[in-house]
Structure formats: C-alpha cells, structure tokens
Amino acid sequence: MPITTLRRPSVLPSRLCVAVLLAWCSAVSAGVEVFTIAGEPVINVPDSSAVVELDAPARLDARISQGLPADPERAQRVLQSHMSGPEWQATLRRYGKLYRGIARAWVLGIEKVPAVVVDSRYVVYGEPDVQAALREIERMEVRPQ
Description:
about 140 residues; single chain; about 50% helix; elongated; alpha+beta; Glutaredoxin; about 15% strand; 5-stranded mixed sheet
C-alpha cells in the first residue's frame, strides 16, 4: 500500500465549523485515526485509535425516520413529539459526535476509505488491517530520505 502525506482542503469553513474543528483537532492531534464506512470493515484496530464511520450520520437519520407516517404533516408532528422527549438530547449529542468525525476527515483531506491516519500526517488508503497499515507507515518512516 502506498503511503501519502495528507493534503489539506483549500476552502475555509465557517467560524462555527472552525471552532468545532479546533476542539476536535486538539483532542485527536496525534495518534491513530481510522476512517471507514459500514460496508468497509476494518480489523486489528488498536484500542487507543479513533474510528470514524463516515456514513454513521445517514444511518442515524434513517433510524430516526423509521416508522414515520407517509403524510408529511403527521410525520412532522410525530417527530416534534419525539424531539420534546428527554432522549432527544442524547440524540443531538450523538449527531454532534458523528459530524465532528466527518469534519475531521474533511480537515485531513481524506479521499477514500478505509483510511488509516497517523499523527495527522501520514495516511494509508485501502488497507482494512489497521496493524498492517501501521507497519507500512513505520517502515516508511525509518527509510532514509
């Protein structure tokens, strides 16, 4: 697997997005991050790694929408009823966490999955075995430049 240095996106996000990204980046500025989707499982993931499933927000949307009436007005009333319940705050926190992962992938310039990122600097694409990706990065780091 080829290793590349991450390219950052050239478009600047809004101020709110920047604040969220800075908070996330400080929490995960070093270490191993794994980006994938539900259909691209990864294996041998170190316990200390952050694993981000980029399709998780869409799956949460589908779960929330499941069982809503076909009539848009009735569906809106049912959803508003759910939103007034105490469990909705937990759902909002879950959305926030999921979208921070997506924002992190955007900041890093992730191009495809699976992607194993080390120290926000190196990425190996297409290797579902995280330990194998880490060994490849380690081999590349010890080679003379």
